[in-house]
Amino acid sequence: MAVTPESPAAQAVSLADGLRAVLGEALGCLLTDVEARQLTGGASRQVYAVTARDDTGATRRAVLRRDPPGHGDADRMRAEAACLRAAAAAGVPVPAVLGNGDTAPGIESPYLLMELVSGESIPRKLQRDPEFERLRPGLARELGRVLGLIHRTPLDTLDMLDDGDPLAALEQIYRDLAEPRPVVEMGLRWLREHAPVARPNALVHGDFRLGNFLVEPSGVRAVLDWELAHRGNPIEDLGWLCVRAWRFGAPAPVGGIGERAALLDGYEQTAGIRPGAAELLWWEAFGTLKWLVLSRFQAERHLGGQERSLELAAIGRRVCESEYDLLLVLGLLDESISLPAAAPPAPAVHDRPDLTEILDLVAETLTEEIGPALGADAARQRYLLRICGNLLGVAGREVRAGDAATAHVRDLLAALGCESEAALADQLRTGSLSPTDPGVRRAATAAVLARLGVTDPRRLRRS
After folding, report:
1. Which of 197, 221, 345, 422 could make an SS bond with 180 (beta carbons 3.0 to 4.6 A apart)?
2. How many angstroms separate the first and last alpha carbons of the chain?
3. 31 Cβ neighbours under 8 A, 6+ residues apart
4. Average pLDDT along the chain
5. Does residue 221 sit in helix, strand or coil?
6. From CA 219, how far away is CA 67, in angstroms rounded?
7. What distances in angstroms separate CA 402 from CA 65, 340, 362, 397, one per listed residue?
8. What is the pLDDT of residues 371-395, one digit of tens each?
9. pTM for the complete prediction?
């Protein structure tokens, strides 16, 4: 069939062509040789490094953030752009906004164009690389100072931001998932019973953690990823930075790079307030519960069929990590629990390698041979291969674990008169059982340890 000017094939615009138009307009020049390379991560937003040449031959660079096509939220993207502009005016280090829109040919979803800022964001490099050795002792304090600047940002241009009760909103997301979890109910009960004093609303970043700011040896260059920004209690950001998930395996409580006292020293310097230990603990517990619920919510986008995604699927298996962290921060983990060893497998009719050996071999080949052999421009493919390897490892450990731990958890639940974890969660929600009941702690701990022992056994050894 011939392609006419009115046909869809003739009207199709590539991402590079779309960027040539919108970035060229933002920069006020004609662009050629436009390339967009998708960066790793970005479970909720797609992020691209953009390079092009202008009409003088100079290289121009930018960063594109866009919603996955077909899953856009224009209001949120406009709010993110407004937050960046307001924060910049308040002295917060952020990338300059070059442009934003609800959609554009080739981009096909709400988008945000920003200047490219140099700096490192990978947590383990910030925690370990010699390049940041002199910076690390003062980094927690500097992060506190930056948070203080964010929280002093005027709100007069940010009326579009939500200012609802964050605990109520989080509970609603959890209820809508229709998957009762005992540890979530224990967390909700504790948070309600220990609520801190209210503070005046401030601009809350909502996701201030390692990975979401760019750092050079001289200090913090830019705070990124404002999509969860809202108006609320500023101490929420401090607690979120102390959540165990954002330590990435390192022991220090503030992002694995510093102590809480240093964070609060820097914060007090620019914010003029200093929360107490109990208030910070509440927001750390809230942040842990928040990541637990949001992890399951993100996984539901894949599991519910809205968006097929390896990354989102993998997040679903990591919910137990936050369950474990929440029991720890609330002091409700039963340290005496030990799970029964897996029974040896019955002889099989199949030849070797057996199923677990196959899973191990494929995971090892993907991550240790195929991934490193990919070219320098295949960073995202290597990232996805690592996820594949991790999921295959989970599958192998689940096969090896067998049914022993599951049967043990069922026995502990039965002792409480509950046929399932969902039934235990319902009894905790109604108040028929207490989170501090020894039997409840045993059953909840055993279930979480059984899941975590399959998903990430190293996390247990780091406790």
Report:
1. 422
2. 64
3. 19, 20, 23, 24, 52, 53, 54, 55, 60
4. 93
5. strand
6. 30
7. 43, 11, 21, 9
8. 888 887 788 888 899 999 999 999 9
9. 0.90
What DSSP element (H or E) covers 48?
Answer: strand 46-54
By CB atoms closer than 10 A (0-12, 13-18, 19+), residue 49 is: middle
Contacts of 95 by beta carbon, 8 Å cutoff, 6+ apart? 63, 84, 114, 115, 116, 117, 222, 224
Cβ pair 53, 31 in contact under 8 A: yes
Please report where in the chains the tokens 């307009």 appear, as a residue: 25
Asked if residue 269 has pLDDT above 90, the reply is yes
Q: Say yes or no to pLDDT of 442 above 80.
A: yes
Helices (H), 30-129: 74-89, 123-128
SS3 at position 120 = strand
Contact 220, 143 (CB under 8 A): yes
Q: How far apart, in whole angstroms, are the C-alpha atoms of residue 211 and residue 126?
A: 9
Query: What are φ and ψ of residue 65, in 5° steps?
Result: -115, 130
| Over residues 178-186, mean pLDDT | 97
